[in-house]
Here is the input.
Amino acid sequence: MENTSFKEASFFPDLGKIDAWLSQRGFKNNDRLRNYRTILSKLVCLEESGGRAAAYDWLLKRRSPGENLSAFMDGWEIVDALKCLRAEKVEVPDELLKRALGGPKDASQENSNNNQSRNATFELTVGAMVARQNLHPVLSTGNPDVEFRFEDRRVLIECKRVLEGRSAMRTATEGIRQLRKQVRAADCEVGIVAVNISREFYRGDRCLEVLAGTEPREALYERISLFIDAHREAILGMNCEAAAGAFFYAAAPFRLEDGRFMLSRAGTFCPFDVGGNEFLGRLAQRLYL
Here is the structure.
């Protein structure tokens, strides 16, 4: 997903529809998403009156650029996920919605005491990824976070976000511990830990820079691949009956040399069984963004 114009950003009108839907669900407070809508409205007005350069200048040079970037990046992730889940008629629990709409508006202010909201957003994102494959996910406020059936086998996903770089493997291992309590290997159930490593590259306070002609999506795939390579031994060491693999995800805003501003995300499924499990190979083909 890429956006080169605030005025033409496809998700902006969708945000209005999601806003109305949330109000119907009883969520009428001035939450994180409503704050983002106010900021995005300002960006649209600036672009219409002063051009794209004026909008970008306000976005990146304002006193609190992190909140503006969060409006565009986080706002898009929430709207994109909810739009998909609604279209596929996936039930989204009220408690999960409440968590996703809370938390600090500025992603750069996130810490271990207030990160539950963006963790919930990631659960929605993973659920939407599965829904796009017509796999009919079930979202939960307990464990697992997301589950679905594939080739008549139950697949359970625990979603984890890395807050600090040094905690990446510890965070993934926590998800696997949770899967051990849930996955019934004797019944051919499959456990997957989905790990959001966005904060390895983007902490909410700046855009990533790429050269003109470079696709942001490819730049993210490269960063994810380098992360996996750097931790490959530890990742493969997570292999157990309860966990078949890990899905590594990242999303970030990019500023190109030609001045354009783009949002992008990427995800890679890493099976723990390197022996060529055919079932996991087919599943991996369905786990992408």
User: Anything to note?
Assistant: The mean pLDDT is 88. The beta strands are 138-139, 146-150, 153-161, 190-196, 208-210, 245-256, 261-271. The chain is about 45% helix and 15% strand.
